[in-house]
Amino acid sequence: MVASVYLCAMLSLLLQWEPLLSAIGAAPASRLPASSWPHLITFLTSSHVGLSVDDACTSLLVLGLAFAAVAAVAAPRLGSLAIAVAMGAAWTAYAAVVAMGGVFLSFQWDLLLLETGGIVAGVSLAGRSGVRLGRTLLTLLAIKLMLGSGAAKMTAECWTWTELRALSFHFATQCIPTPLAPWFAALPRWLLAAGGTGTFAAQIWAPIVWLLFLPFGAAVHAVKLVSAGHLLFQATIMASGNYTFFNLLAMILCAAPAIDTPDIVPLLPSFNYGASAVAGASVAAAAASWFTWAPADGLALGVSSGAVSSQLATLVVLVICVGLVYGVLEVALMVYRARSVASVVVAGLALTWLALFVVTMAVASPEANMALQGGLSRELYATLRWAAYASRTASSYGLFRRMTGMDPAASPDVPLVARPEIELEYSLDGGGTWAVLPWRYKPSSLDGPLRFVAPHQPRLDWQMWFAALGSYQHAPWLVRLALLPLAAPERVVPTLLPILGDGADAVLNTTAIAAALPRSRLVRATLFHYAFTGSRAAAAAGSKISPAPWTAGSVWERATAASYFPPISPAQPQVAAFIGELTPSKATLLGELRRLATVHLAPHAFGLCCAMCLAPLLGWVW
């Protein structure tokens, strides 16, 4: 299943490499300092091989796709060594490309995919004797992901989370909403507050059940119940928002604790049900103590930030200590039972990952992280952090730390949404007339449509969402992207059109651009605030706030916020220097394959990859 997620991720990236990261893209990978390139890219671009950076990266993506396809389709017929080689090759290819991707591959789920793939490739070397260890390491990774994400929300001091009102904003302000997002956003506020409570329960307290009950064979039903709840949690997220391949990967990790095969013999088969009841009740009571209920206010977080920090530090230390002991015991048990060279190699890899797990898990709590730094020598701590970063085999996580897209007048009682969105406008007559560039996935047209996109990740649309939260000074790639069609229309426009919306070919008409005088070619960016149609009026009902008139469509309503950047032209000397020289390049076989895949392969491949991921999970649930 993990190999299927690799297929989704690499195919999605391959189709977007040219407009985003090639020499004529928004953020060319070749412009990264050569000292930061992975050794594999350095070798492929050296005189020994002679590939360009773009051809080296796309070659790795093609090879990674091939190896991932082998691991996904032919795994039952392959030996453990072949699976390890295939997954290791896919991991190596993706790790090298992620290192070259800059801003467009800076997402936490790219790191999560690498960490998951590294674990799967490593334990596959041990064959059937490594299944049990693999389940343990993937469970610890799932705990780190969930607890880290929950801790990030609790320590961010964002009132939408502490007041349990985050979901009142989330569905309308997330990057790419699905067609069901307006329905979720219109749910009663008490139900949305209950959803916020469930988020904390799923991300902070439920993983503790995995940690405490996983070693006991007789507690398998409690572990499976928590895993099933997490699968439902991820399915709800998938229904309401397009979060690329992340939800599929999270489902795999959350199902890992419930793996129950003849190869897995419980570490402690016997189990005291009285002790389990006490442990379960203690976890439930600790979780319930965080929340209060009042008829007037509903659910709310009822503990101070200091108490939250203290309890989070205790949980993180508990996870580190118990997880480390459990992991080491599993490694020793695997080596004892297998007694092979492969098991010794896997043991070394697993112990290395466990050391990195300690330093990356501690990041979830500032208090726990400071205690760890005090307990280790400065050199050892720095070495472990550097190893985690450089090897990309371990990372810390903290998804959705703060809620964005809130109106300044928003409050727990008046959840006014004002999600920022950038529109690019082009003029070929010196600013006399302007044409708006349509987008394929991100909110643009007031009449939608909203789409299901995942597991494909439209990385341009995602980065446009982040860029709208700041200024263009922090998004130089956006300025370059906006100017390139005017500077070199014949070369750039054909690569951009597949990732833009319908009608983009009329706005970026290569013939018209080429015919216009260079100084008459202008582009500007405007910042708008969006909300689901009618949601602002419903949020302000009964309050003293009277929403300003917005332009409304069937899906969205919006109001102009500010100019994002003023009209600029590629003919301006400083702008031309910023874009840089666009050297001609001949067509390559890889380029033609990318274009063919965009038209003929992509619509079907993502559905197939998604089915390959979900089929085993649905079978397990059934």
Walk me through this protein's architecture.
The protein is α+β, with helices and mostly antiparallel strands. Helix 11 runs antiparallel to helix 12 and helix 14 (305-338) runs antiparallel to helix 15 (341-362). The model is unreliable at 583-587 (pLDDT under 50). The protein is globular, with a radius of gyration of 26 Å. The strands form 2 sheets. A 5-stranded antiparallel beta sheet has the order 4-3-5-7-6. The chain has a two-stranded antiparallel ribbon with strand order 1-2. A hairpin with a 3-residue loop joins strand 6 and strand 7. The chain has 25 helices and 7 strands. The protein starts with a helix and ends with a helix. It has helices at residues 2-21, 39-44, 53-73, 80-100, 108-124, 131-155, 159-162, 167-173, 181-185, 189-213, 220-240, 246-255, 273-288, 305-338, 341-362, 366-375, 378-391, 459-467, 476-487, 489-496, 504-507, 510-515, 535-540, 573-579, 589-621, and strands spanning 291-294, 298-301, 419-427, 435-436, 522-532, 551-552, 556-568.
